[in-house]
Design a protein that fits this description.
There is one protein chain. By secondary structure, the protein is an alpha+beta fold. The chain has one domain: Alpha-Beta Plaits, CATH 3.30.70.141. Helix content is about 40%, strand content about 20%. Strands 2-3-1-4 form a 4-stranded antiparallel sheet. The chain is globular and about 45 Å long.
């Protein structure tokens, strides 16, 4: 099974969209294996956004992700990375497909509600930055084969 990191950023939490975002991801068949509600410390923010260091918007990203509570999750499922990113929609909400989270609830890129890992390699790094192995739970849903196609 593929795993990915998902963040509900401060604007998603502040706007009471956390439940809707989680619901949509679970309805896709993805399984939550870790979840926490936290205020992001600057050190974690800088580590998370390290790939953007030196870009004009870097400091704004740091201020934004540390400005309020965030929900961090590890989701698991077949093609989890692609499924999550498809459910969220394009980074720029006005370019996101109708029916995606960002299209339905967002309007500007700097407040696009969520973050999701973009590759298996980055997912592994990001999950390791946000969670310890003890915080990630392996569990089986009663009807797991309905979601995975495995019998």
């Amino acid at each position: 099974m593929e795993r990915t990191l998902v963040l509900i950023k401060p604007d998603g939490v502040e706007r009471n969209l956390s439940g809707e975002i989680i619901k949509r991801l679970e309805m896709r068949g993805l399984k939550i294996t870790a979840l926490k509600f936290l205020l992001v410390k600057e050190e974690l923010a800088r580590k998370h956004y390290d790939i953007h260091q030196g870009k004009p918007f870097y400091e704004g990203l740091i201020r934004y992700i540390t400005s309020g509570p965030v929900i961090a999750m590890v989701l698991e499922g077949p093609n989890a990375i692609k499924a999550v990113r498809q459910t969220m929609g394009a980074t720029n909400p006005v370019e996101a497909d109708p029916g995606t989270i960002r299209h339905d609830f967002g309007i500007i890129t700097s407040r696009n509600l969520t973050h999701a890992s973009d590759s298996p390699e980055n997912a592994e790094i990001e999950i390791g930055n946000w969670f310890t192995q003890d915080e990630i739970f392996q569990w089986e849903r009663v009807h797991e084969n309905f979601f995975t196609g495995l019998n």
